[in-house]
């Protein structure tokens, strides 16, 4: 299910469904986010804190639902990831989302919401930069591309590996693009929100995980038959996923080759998407074609329709 494009006078709702941001960093990020020319409305979770969460589960779930219900809100942006969205999945009324489709943007811990929303409603969501990242000047190109996509100016974006490209299994594949953060994807296994990968292009990314941790999570997905069922696999980036110093280890690339090259599914490593800059936005829930031989992704189904 596509979502409406952003009008030029769009009002963007901002929520914090996972971890909080310090007031100083939050205020700087919000001020810079306003420079993109849109009005904003803040959810209650943006200024809340409950331990390591941005408010309790009820507040954060109701914040999400309210932003979808409100007719004056044109899109929903997450303030940051961190931890907490898995706790919301069983509390969300997905019928509200299905009846009020609109762009929903985030990544990292937000992966759990991407998976649950799409599998329960069929709605397209957007794996892309979050509001707290506006504090970094290098994020500007990612946000500009995100707004181009959301306003319908780039309906079928194409992505090309530009650095650290590694073909894991050559070949082309077509399917619905799904996925996100590897740790969160593994966390859905064995739950009512377990990711469904059959015939899909599975996007994976992570941050600050040692190669053995990536090995363990990929092995878990292999044992669950999730990687074999996919039509294609893209491991976009893994920032700070380096071998530990002075300890025996494989490199990240060696782990990816070992775990992914033996299942006869076209797969490659290396796209500017995830915990890195730039962090290019990409629609989830739309069909795409990948060419693992040259590290390219071409969306073949639009994610937005005229407002």
Automatic annotation (TrEMBL):
GO biological process, one term: proteolysis
Pfam families recorded: Peptidase_S66, Peptidase_S66C
Record has Metal-binding as a keyword: no
Domain of life the protein comes from: Bacteria
Annotated LD-carboxypeptidase C-terminal domain residues: 174-288
Active site: 108, 205, 275
Record keywords: Carboxypeptidase, Hydrolase, Protease, Serine protease
SUPFAM superfamilies: Class I glutamine amidotransferase-like, LD-carboxypeptidase A C-terminal domain-like
Ranges where the LD-carboxypeptidase N-terminal domain occurs: 13-128
Family: Belongs to the peptidase S66 family.
UniProt protein name: Muramoyltetrapeptide carboxypeptidase
Source taxonomy: Bacteria, Bacillati, Bacillota, Bacilli, Bacillales
């Amino acid at each position: 299910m596509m979502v409406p494009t952003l009008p030029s006078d769009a009002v963007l709702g901002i929520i914090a469904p996972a971890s909080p941001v310090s007031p100083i960093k939050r205020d700087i990020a919000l001020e810079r986010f306003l420079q993109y020319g849109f009005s904003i409305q803040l959810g209650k979770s943006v200024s809340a804190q409950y331990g390591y969460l941005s408010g309790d589960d009820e507040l954060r779930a109701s914040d999400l639902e309210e932003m979808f219900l409100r007719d004056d809100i044109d899109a929903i942006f997450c303030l940051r990831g961190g931890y907490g969205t898995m706790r919301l999945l069983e509390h969300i009324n997905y019928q509200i989302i299905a009846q009020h489709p609109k762009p929903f943007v985030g990544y990292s811990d937000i992966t759990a919401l991407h998976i649950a929303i799409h599998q329960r409603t069929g709605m397209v969501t957007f794996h892309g930069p979050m509001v707290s990242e506006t504090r970094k000047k290098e994020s500007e190109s990612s946000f500009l591309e995100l707004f181009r996509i959301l306003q319908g100016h780039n309906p079928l974006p194409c992505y090309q590996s530009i650095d650290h490209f590694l073909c894991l299994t050559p070949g082309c594949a077509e399917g619905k693009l799904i996925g996100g953060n590897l740790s969160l994807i593994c966390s859905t296994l064995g739950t009512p929100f377990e990711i469904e990968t059959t015939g899909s292009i599975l996007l994976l990314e992570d941050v600050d995980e040692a190669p053995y941790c990536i090995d363990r999570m990929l092995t878990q997905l292999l044992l669950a038959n999730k990687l074999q069922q996919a039509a294609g696999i893209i491991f976009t980036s893994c920032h700070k996923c380096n071998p530990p110093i002075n300890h025996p280890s494989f490199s990240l690339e060696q782990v990816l080759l070992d775990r992914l090259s033996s299942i006869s599914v076209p797969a490659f490593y290396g796209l500017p998407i995830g915990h890195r800059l730039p962090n290019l936005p990409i629609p989830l829930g739309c069909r795409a074609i990948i060419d693992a031989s040259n590290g390219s992704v071409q969306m073949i189904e639009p994610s937005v329709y005229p407002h």
